């Protein structure tokens, strides 16, 4: 079907744009010999895993369910990190994952034997205590009191037996200069233990597919760890894989006034684009401008009863009217993976726009998807 015929609300992933991103990432892999895996927590639309698997080395997971999804739907290298694993899930994790990364020496001691007996690789997450991001404290795993990774003070070299790799994840939407700064901290605090390792995982948060990203510097950082310590380097970006590769298509249901013009859409910031409120950020809206930039400015809001369920203020060339379709950009990542049915909101359909412009609906949702989670 044509883009204009898709039901709303609907997430539409743009195959061409996704593949463009994958080619950028694959170029880094080819030139450096590093491995890049998809962090599924950002984007888990498994209908596209065959395409992603053509370019990347595999998947990484935040827990058993994502690990299963990667195993079943991509079937390539499968990594996992969790703040803590449960007794009842570790054997299944070992059976389907290749790298199992622990967050503490106590978890390492508890489960290491079972990972090694299963022939899988044991990794340890370190915390280099090097904050390079400002503004988004909830996205900073190096903030004081962070529960993520073993700090230098807690490091217990005597327990490293069987550990073949170290993992750090400290970045969020950042460029390679912050990676370089982080590597300095990693070497300063943990460099002594790198020669005995086989691999290092740089985590995610590398905004590699953003226009101004410094790919040569990233490659220099990768080569530095390869050449100096003989390590295999892994990166596990989420955002960068599907950055700017999808849309959320919505319809205007009504317009009202309260000191300004307001449009109610058949979507919800809270349910369908929660990072708009959590991050927070203003998603691009195709054809619209900043407030006041074009003649007609509207506050765009959702259907829920949350007063703050607004997406932002945008301006338009013509007044909005019931039935107009609006297309938000950069809606592939951290959207469908975070959906809720708060207020009984319907879940948006999921669709693909192929390279030739044709669209197909992968999945539609209904009342049952709301009810089944509540009893
Ligand atoms: C969130 C996360 C990622 C992916 O981060 P992006 O910002 O989406 O690139 C990778 N690894 C770990 C451990 C994470 O927590």
Automatic annotation (TrEMBL):
<dbReference type="GO" id="GO:0045312">
    <property type="term" value="P:nor-spermidine biosynthetic process"/>
</dbReference>
<keyword id="KW-0456">Lyase</keyword>
<dbReference type="Pfam" id="PF00278">
    <property type="entry name" value="Orn_DAP_Arg_deC"/>
</dbReference>
<keyword id="KW-0210">Decarboxylase</keyword>
<dbReference type="InterPro" id="IPR009006">
    <property type="entry name" value="Ala_racemase/Decarboxylase_C"/>
</dbReference>
<feature type="binding site">
    <location>
        <position position="239"/>
    </location>
    <ligand>
        <name>substrate</name>
    </ligand>
</feature>
<feature type="domain" description="Orn/DAP/Arg decarboxylase 2 C-terminal">
    <location>
        <begin position="10"/>
        <end position="331"/>
    </location>
</feature>
<dbReference type="InterPro" id="IPR029066">
    <property type="entry name" value="PLP-binding_barrel"/>
</dbReference>
<dbReference type="GO" id="GO:0008836">
    <property type="term" value="F:diaminopimelate decarboxylase activity"/>
</dbReference>
<dbReference type="InterPro" id="IPR022643">
    <property type="entry name" value="De-COase2_C"/>
</dbReference>
<dbReference type="GO" id="GO:0009089">
    <property type="term" value="P:lysine biosynthetic process via diaminopimelate"/>
</dbReference>
<feature type="binding site">
    <location>
        <position position="275"/>
    </location>
    <ligand>
        <name>substrate</name>
    </ligand>
</feature>
<dbReference type="InterPro" id="IPR005730">
    <property type="entry name" value="Nsp_de-COase"/>
</dbReference>
<keyword id="KW-0663">Pyridoxal phosphate</keyword>
<keyword id="KW-0745">Spermidine biosynthesis</keyword>
<protein>
    <submittedName>
        <fullName>Carboxynorspermidine decarboxylase</fullName>
    </submittedName>
</protein>
<dbReference type="GO" id="GO:0008295">
    <property type="term" value="P:spermidine biosynthetic process"/>
</dbReference>
């Amino acid at each position: 079907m044509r883009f204009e015929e898709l039901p709303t609300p609907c997430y539409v992933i743009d195959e061409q744009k996704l593949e463009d991103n994958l080619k950028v990432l694959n170029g880094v892999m080819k030139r450096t010999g590093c491995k890049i895996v998809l962090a599924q927590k950002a984007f888990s639309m498994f209908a596209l895993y065959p395409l992603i698997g053509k370019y990347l080395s595999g998947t990484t997971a935040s827990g058993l369910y994502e690990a299963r999804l990667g195993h079943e739907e991509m079937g390539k290298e499968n990594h996992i990190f969790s703040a803590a694993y449960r007794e009842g899930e570790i054997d299944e994790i070992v059976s389907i994952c290749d790298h199992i990364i622990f967050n503490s020496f106590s978890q390492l001691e508890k489960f290491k034997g079972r990972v090694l007996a299963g022939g899988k690789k044991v990794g340890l997450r370190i915390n280099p205590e090097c904050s390079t991001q400002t503004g988004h404290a909830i996205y900073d795993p190096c903030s004081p009191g962070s529960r993520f990774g073993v700090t230098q003070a807690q490091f217990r070299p005597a327990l490293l037996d069987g550990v073949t790799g170290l993992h750090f994840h400290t970045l969020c939407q950042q460029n390679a200069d912050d990676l370089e700064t982080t590597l300095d901290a990693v070497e300063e605090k943990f460099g002594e233990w790198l020669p005995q390792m086989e691999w290092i995982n740089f985590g995610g948060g590398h905004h590699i597919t953003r226009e101004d990203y410094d790919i040569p510097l990233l490659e220099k950082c990768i080569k530095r760890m390869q050449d100096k310590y003989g390590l295999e380097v892994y990166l596990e970006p989420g955002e960068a894989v599907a950055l700017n590769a999808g849309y959320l298509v919505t319809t205007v249901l009504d317009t009202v006034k309260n000191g300004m013009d307001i449009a109610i859409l058949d979507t919800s910031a809270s349910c369908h684009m929660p990072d708009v409120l959590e991050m927070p950020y203003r998603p691009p809206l195709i054809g619209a401008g900043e407030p006041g930039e074009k003649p007609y400015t509207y506050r765009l809001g959702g259907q829920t009863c949350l007063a703050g369920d607004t997406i932002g203020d945008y301006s338009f060339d013509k007044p909005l009217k019931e039935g107009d379709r609006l297309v938000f950009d950069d809606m592939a990542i951290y959207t469908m993976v975070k959906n809720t049915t708060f207020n009984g909101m319907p879940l948006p359909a999921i669709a693909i726009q192929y390279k030739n412009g044709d669209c197909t609906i992968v999945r539609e949702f209904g009342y049952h998807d709301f009810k089944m989670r509540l009893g």
